[in-house]
User: Which sequence fits this backbone?
């Protein structure tokens, strides 16, 4: 499928959009998420608990002091890790945001059309993410097959869409959960190539528990996306993906599995 | 094959490990004929560099004969004699195209580790921790060389291994350190550390036109070698270095200062502090030489870092650097950039790199070699190891 033709978007507008999206994502990840009145209450309550804890002795005093410190810090910074894990942003209405979103950026030292050609050909992308096999099954429609730990496989369909500088891969039938991979491409300054910002938006399964787990794994997922982007960059720039040979130390089974999963590393060590 | 494997602080073993294989199309396999222990290998030996794993093969200074090439390597053939630069560089990324080879974007498979520590990942390095790629090193009978169409320098003819081996690291490293100083005729250069990199920095500075080079160390044999090549030795346990440098330069201070020591410096007013701070994880590196270099350097001068730093330092006099308008230049060496011009200087007889070698040992004695090099015993300055069957001579 394709989007309806958009109004002509100037290059500078595309760059501005890309950068404002990056700032929005980072603010969503680490910006203040506690409302101003609640911050004040948290600060005052924390100070009171801290004073109460200081006036008492023993473990109760320590516990009250620790709780008071945490509440005071929450009030002072406006950031609440519990809210973050549940996707609550009191500054944005206070409802639970059930969407998990993470992004990474890289610069590929290649012209825009070369990079675009790579990202609009999911089969080529599968060379970068070796735990995936991707085969075309129709116009702009592909079947993705993921290799899971233990030798199992899971397959689902994706649809490719393009609009201006944006390429989207949207999960379709058979997907374990709803997700979209969005790639924005803009020329990098001078002769540096093409800036690529990849964003994954997903609605994790399992309700609030799944959401909390997804947010807890946010850093790991983001790093995994970064590794895939690095693989794409390496394939385009050098024609191969850098790998250490075996044996490179006595690597643990967990590291070997993670290496195979994220870097497409063969089971060599 | 036999290889030198890391097993923890002050423990290396020569073990049988599987032979390397071609993994990627641009790989080559090199049969190592000569390999050296670098001063920076001692940082691994002393366990200053994180992410080492037991069994890792050490070594990033090596040369040998190509025995196998991948299908995309068009410039090398089986039988070619090559010196291999220690940073692994793809030759295609933005950094490689600007000859910033040690900043290569594509050669560190574990870039995410380096990004967590450094913000961005430098190039992968042979045998230098998983942080730097987890590649097996060249203190072995054979080594896999990634991006072999970019790095290895073919060496023909009658030059011996010992004449060209150090093109892999320490000779370009000393050269780049001196080049950072933008030496003008008559300049005075002070060099902290008269180990192999310091020795080559001294010789490079003189070749670049320095009027005087002042060499600072505490080992007589190293100071004697520096003097032989034109430097004025300064024993830092016998003089107050900052006072001596000030008075030896008419109160101005050296025009440029080279720190060829790095993270395991000794001496100086804060050495006791550094011992405590490193043991309590307040800092990871001991920057005594760097502190002195900043304080000694003349106003508007340059401080050039050739020594390796791996993590965090404390009590660095950045205020002095700012208020004296100093220029600080540093980096892992972009070895590829310097190999061919330095080879030409060796061929012309302008540089003889062999006289820093104090020990020639078989690979099987690597554990002993590391020990004497680390303890500076037997007047050890540089160890060259020969794998079994290696001739170590030119074709």
Assistant:
């Amino acid at each position: 499928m394709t989007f309806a033709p958009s109004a002509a978007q100037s290059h500078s507008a595309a760059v501005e959009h890309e950068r404002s999206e990056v700032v929005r994502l980072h603010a969503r990840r680490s910006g203040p998420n506690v409302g101003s009145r609640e911050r004040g209450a948290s600060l005052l309550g924390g100070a009171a608990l801290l004073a109460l804890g200081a006036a008492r002795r023993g473990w109760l005093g320590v516990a009250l002091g620790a709780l008071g410190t945490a509440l005071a810090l929450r009030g002072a910074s406006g950031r609440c890790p519990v809210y973050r894990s549940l996707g609550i942003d009191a500054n944005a209405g206070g409802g639970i945001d059930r969407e998990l979103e993470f992004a990474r950026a890289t610069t590929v030292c290649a012209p825009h059309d070369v990079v675009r050609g790579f990202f609009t050909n999911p089969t080529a992308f599968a060379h970068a993410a070796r735990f995936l096999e991707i085969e075309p099954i129709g116009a702009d429609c592909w079947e993705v097959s993921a290799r899971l730990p233990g030798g199992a496989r899971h397959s689902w369909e994706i649809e490719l869409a393009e609009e201006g500088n944006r390429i989207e891969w949207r999960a379709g039938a058979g997907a374990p959960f709803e997700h979209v991979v969005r790639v924005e491409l803009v020329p990098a300054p001078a002769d540096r190539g093409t800036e690529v910002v990849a964003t994954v938006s997903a609605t994790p399964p399992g309700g609030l528990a799944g959401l909390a787990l997804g947010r807890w794994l946010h850093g790991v997922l983001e790093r995994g996306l970064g590794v895939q982007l690095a693989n794409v960059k390496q394939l385009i720039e050098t024609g191969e993906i850098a790998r250490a040979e075996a044996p490179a130390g006595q690597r643990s089974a967990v590291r070997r599995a993670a290496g195979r999963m994220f870097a497409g590393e063969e089971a060599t060590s | 094959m036999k290889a030198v494997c890391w097993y923890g602080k002050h423990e290396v073993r020569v073990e049988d490990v599987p032979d390397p294989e071609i993994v990627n199309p641009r790989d080559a396999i090199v049969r190592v004929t000569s390999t050296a222990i670098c001063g920076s290998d001692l940082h691994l030996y002393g366990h200053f560099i994180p992410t080492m794993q037991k069994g890792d093969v050490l070594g990033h200074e090596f040369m040998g004969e190509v025995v196998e090439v991948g299908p995309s390597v068009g410039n090398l053939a089986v039988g070619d004699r090559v010196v291999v630069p220690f940073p692994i560089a793809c030759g295609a990324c933005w950094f490689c195209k600007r000859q910033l080879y040690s900043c290569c974007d594509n050669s560190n498979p574990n870039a995410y580790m380096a990004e967590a520590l450094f913000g961005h990942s430098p190039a992968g390095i042979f045998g230098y921790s998983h942080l730097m790629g987890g590649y097996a090193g060249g203190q072995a009978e054979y080594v896999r060389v990634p991006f072999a169409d970019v790095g290895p320098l073919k060496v023909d003819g009658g030059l011996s291994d010992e004449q060209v081996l150090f093109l892999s690291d320490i000779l370009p490293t000393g050269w780049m350190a001196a080049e950072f100083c933008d030496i003008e005729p008559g300049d005075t250069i002070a060099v902290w550390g008269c180990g192999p990199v310091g020795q080559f920095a001294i010789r490079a500075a003189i070749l670049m036109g320095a009027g005087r080079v002042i060499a600072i160390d505490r080992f007589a044999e190293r100071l004697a070698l520096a003097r032989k090549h034109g430097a004025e030795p300064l024993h830092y346990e016998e003089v107050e270095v900052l006072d001596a440098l000030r008075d030896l330069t008419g109160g101005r201070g050296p025009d440029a200062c080279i720190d060829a020591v790095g993270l395991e410096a000794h001496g100086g007013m804060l050495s006791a502090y550094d011992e405590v701070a490193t043991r309590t994880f307040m800092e990871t590196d001991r920057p005594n030489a760097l502190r002195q270099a900043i304080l000694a350097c003349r106003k508007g001068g340059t401080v050039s870092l050739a020594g390796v730093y791996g993590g965090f330092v404390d009590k660095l006099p950045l205020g002095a650097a700012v208020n004296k308008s100093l220029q600080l230049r540093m980096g892992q060496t972009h070895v590829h950039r310097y190999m061919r011009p330095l080879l030409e200087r060796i061929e012309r007889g302008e540089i003889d790199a062999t006289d820093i070698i104090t020990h020639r040992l078989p690979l099987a004695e690597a554990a002993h070699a590391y020990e004497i090099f680390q303890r500076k015993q037997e007047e050890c300055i540089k160890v060259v190891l020969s794998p079994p069957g290696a001739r170590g001579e030119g074709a």
Observations:
- The longest strand of chain B covers residues 28-37.
- Chain B touches chain A through 41 residues (CB under 8 Å).
